[in-house]
Every structure is written in C-alpha cells, then in structure tokens.
Amino acid sequence: MRLQKFLAHSGVASRRKSEEIIFAKRVKVNGEIIDNPAHDVDENDIVKVDNRLVSLNEKNLYYLLNKPTGVVSTASDEKNRINVVDFIESDERLYPVGRLDMDTSGLIILTNDGDLTNKLTHPRYELPKTYLARVRGIPTPKELEELQNGVLIDGKKTKKASANIERVFKHESLVKITIEEGRNRQVRKMFDYINHPVITLKRIKIGNIDIGNLLEGSYRKLKKEELDYLKNFSNENR
Ligand code: URA
User: Fold this and answer.
1) Distance (Å) from CA 220 to ligand 1 centroid
2) Options 3.30.70.580, 3.30.160.250, 3.20.80.10, 3.20.20.70; which CATH number does 62-124+209-236 get?
3) Which of 144, 153, 156, 210 is least surrounded by Cβ atoms within 10 Å, i.e. has the fewest?
4) Mutation probe of ligand 1 site: the residue of 131, 135, 159 with most atoms within 8 A of C-beta
C-alpha cells in the first residue's frame, strides 16, 4: 500500500494532509526518512510520524459535534487553543471533516477515516451545507434572490444557493441559507455583499444530516444510515 494511503488509513490525517506530512520529511519507515507518498509499505513495516509509531487502524470512528463558538476546528493548533477534537473522549486520533470559523457554531463531523474525509472535502463534490444566519436588518426578496443566483466574493461568483427568511425581529432577521461550496468565510461574505452583515452563524445541516437537538459542546456517533449516506454521496460523486 502507498505510504500516503497507509497514513490516511491509520488515522494520521486525510490523504491530502498525509502527503504534506510526507513531503515535510516527518515520516520514517524502518528508521529511514521517506518523502515519497508512493513508497510501498505493509503492516510489517515500522512507520513513524514525528517519531511516534503509527499502525494500521481497522476501526473507523465517526462523530458529529455541535461546535460552540470560540473553538477552532483544526485538529492541532499552533496557539494551543481549544479545538473540536478536545470535545471527543476517544483514544483514537480524530480530525475534522472540513472546517468552521472560530466564531461559527454548529455541526462538524470528526473521524479517523482519512479516505472519507478526502472524498467529502474535495472542492468539486461539496455536500450542501445549511446555515442559520442571524443578520443585521431584513433582506428584501431581491437581495435574497441575489444570494440565490450568486454574488461576487473575492472576485468570483458564488454558485447557486437557497436562502429564505425564517424569522424577523425588530432590527435583525434569521435567514436559512444552503450553499454547495466551502470558500473562506463564504456565508459572512455573501451577507456582507447584500449589506446585511452576519451577527451569529450556526451550521445546522451537512447534506441531509441534521443537528436535531444536539446541545452545543455535545457530540454523538453518526448513525448507520447517516454514514451510508455520506459514503454513497462520496462514491456517487467521484
Ligand atoms: N461560512 C462562513 O462564513 N463561516 C463558516 O464557518 C462557514 C461558512
């Protein structure tokens, strides 16, 4: 098996990240630094990352976390801030599928299945993601239509989206928006474009997987049908 695949299967990181780790010369096979992702390894080889032994992991784990705001969604953070992985009580090395901004709350998937992560985070096959955005003011039907048809952010038009007002307050409103891309701070930038800046943002759905009544900071295992859905999605969209 390719070294890169070995690392992903072992839960070290996604395939793409594993490649970076290999290129960074952080991987030793039988005591020798190997910087070739295609290097052939099997279970008899001693593979170490940053001098820590890595072994093939047959048990894949999948969790859903309701991320609170103020938490970073990287598995390791150079500033040592609290991150999404800290919430899960597991001895396995888990990492998040995609990311949410520190100031965004809501659904995030954590797993040690590098292959699935790799497929689900491929920019060409993004799952639809649904957010509840509390925004300043009340967008007009024309502004919502702009969001739906695509607006220019960072010099590039956003793909078709759906956006509907859920609730109206005196000076604010709650808008449900579904996008099929994951560009940097995309939802916030889309609402900035129509001059209704986001006050709070929460992801409530990934594909058809719904946050339900999972409390902030709580997590649960993915249900079998949810995992089947994700696997089917990633296979259909290869
Ligand atoms: N869009 C944003 O602006 N932030 C997120 O965290 C996710 C989508």
Assistant:
1) 22
2) 3.30.70.580
3) 156
4) 131
Q: Tell me the average pLDDT across 84-95.
A: 87
What is the Å distance from ligand 1's center to 100 Cα? 6
Q: Is the pTM of this model over 0.85?
A: no
- Percent of the chain whose pLDDT exceeds 70: 96
Q: Name every residue whose Cβ is closer than 8 Å to that of residue 128 and which is 6 or more positions away in sequence.
A: 178, 179, 180, 205, 207
What length is written for the chain? Answer: 238
Mean pLDDT of the region 81-103: 90
Token digits of residue 75: 């598995």
Q: What is the DSSP track for 161-198?
A: -EEEEEEE-SSEEEEEEEES---TTHHHHHHHHTT--E
